[in-house]
UniProtKB/TrEMBL annotation:
Its main location: membrane. It is found in: Cell membrane. The chain crosses the membrane at residues 61-88, 100-124, 130-150, 171-196, 233-254. The lineage of its organism: Bacteria, Bacillati, Bacillota, Bacilli, Bacillales. GO terms for biological process: transmembrane transport. This is ABC transporter permease. It is a multi-pass membrane protein.
Length: 269
């Protein structure tokens, strides 16, 4: 009886979780008037191509997806390298003030992002980087949570292994790239999911720093679909579905590493 209730509870949870996604996909295949119809229409329609045509006429969806993809991929690659190097240094090097510096990174997570927008805009404006990719990529390249998670996982690497490599004459770069990073694949995958999702869904800063539609990221471009007088919910649902697909794809590809990466720091030598 207990297993029956457990499975029933999980089934209800699955329906609640998948329901909004299914409604979004149904809305993407129906005209705008049917999206808010009552009772709600739960059967996919045949309006997908028309919604796609309207979406393409309203915004340059291909350019927006390209902009978001370039920014997110470059951000993840560069941020993973910098954050993993910082995590390795915090975990395996004991130097004066290391705990204070690490605590400052944790305190940085408590600063509201909105409080940094004006200083960031002034900085990038002074070096003429407004309306550029690097203006979106650089501000959060040293992501504090990523450094924290990687440091916790790095502490699980035995110090004896690092010391043995040093005794054998291995340099720190060799140890980092050939010993530390290969054992960190689950953690890097978990952090990569967080970083990609964060940058792909980033809205406020790109909205402020990007001044031309040609450079709009996907979330910013989709926000222009909400007009003052009317909203075409069909194309809005389709655009939202397109924006969700890359995030789901990244998670499905890396999901087997996700849990082990999150829990990796719980086991230490």
């Amino acid at each position: 009886m207990q297993k029956i209730f457990m499975h029933l509870f999980l089934l209800i949870g699955v329906v609640i979780s998948i329901g909004p996604f299914y409604w979004m996909l149904v809305g993407a295949t129906n005209p705008s008037g049917d999206v808010l119809a009552f009772p709600p229409k739960l059967i996919p329609g045949d309006y997908l191509l028309e919604n796609l045509r309207n979406l393409s006429n309203s915004i340059d969806i291909v350019k927006a997806v390209t902009n978001s993809s370039i920014i997110a991929i470059v951000f993840v690659v560069v941020s993973l390298f910098i954050c993993s190097a910082a995590g390795y240094a915090f975990a395996k090097f004991k130097f004066k003030g290391s705990n204070l510096i690490f605590a400052s990174f944790l305190l940085a997570m408590m600063i509201p992002y909105q409080a940094t927008i004006i200083p960031l805009f002034q900085i990038f404006g002074s070096i003429d980087w407004i309306n550029t990719y690097q203006a979106i990529i650089l501000p959060q390249i040293c992501y504090p949570f990523a450094i924290f998670l990687i440091r916790q996982n790095m502490q699980g690497i035995p110090d004896s292994l690092i010391e043995a490599a040093r005794i054998d004459g291995a340099g720190e770069f060799f140890i980092f790239f050939k010993i530390a990073l290969p054992t960190m694949k689950p953690a890097l995958a978990a952090v990569g999911i967080f970083l990609f999702t964060h940058q792909w869904n980033n809205f406020m800063w790109p909205l402020i720093v990007m001044t031309t539609q040609e450079n709009y990221t996907l979330p910013v471009a989709l926000s222009t679909l909400a007009g003052l007088n009317s909203i075409d919910y069909g194309q809005l649902m389709l655009g939202t579905a397109i924006s969700v697909i890359p995030v789901m794809a990244v998670f499905l590809i890396l999901q087997k590493h996700f849990i082990s990466g999150i829990l990796g720091g719980s086991i230490k030598e």
